[in-house]
Amino acid sequence: MMKKKQIMILLIMGIIIGGFFYIINISTFEPHMTGGNGNPALLFMIPTVPLYVYFSILLYTTFYYFLVKIVKMRS
């Protein structure tokens, strides 16, 4: 049986990564706006990339687990 802990980690990481992408999106300046002291959204991009890679691997393994489980049930 799939561990509830792994599913909760997926849910929490999805919310965190979504929040980072949202902050990056609202922090990005449009061409007619002045940026001030650089682009602070770059600071949120640093942790977003490794988190997204880990999230993708965890999501793949979870779906693979369920796919194998469904195939075994049908056999």
TrEMBL record:
It comes from the Bacteria. Keywords: Membrane, Transmembrane, Transmembrane helix. The chain crosses the membrane at residues 7-24, 44-67. This is DUF3955 domain-containing protein.
